[in-house]
Amino acid sequence: QLKTAVKRLAQRPYGEGRHVGLDGSSLSHPSLRDVVLYNPVQDAWHFRSR
Questions:
Q1: Low-confidence ranges of the chain (pLDDT < 70)
Q2: Tally of structural domains, the chain
């Protein structure tokens, strides 16, 4: 489930992040804390680095 969520995020351009079709609970998992972050201003998930 975590792997699928990260793959879906990786399919989007970095600047866009991911708004729809993502399992937010998977991306907020503690094991991904160093990899992805949630931007509440854009209401989107992003990788921490390009």
A1: 14-24
A2: 1
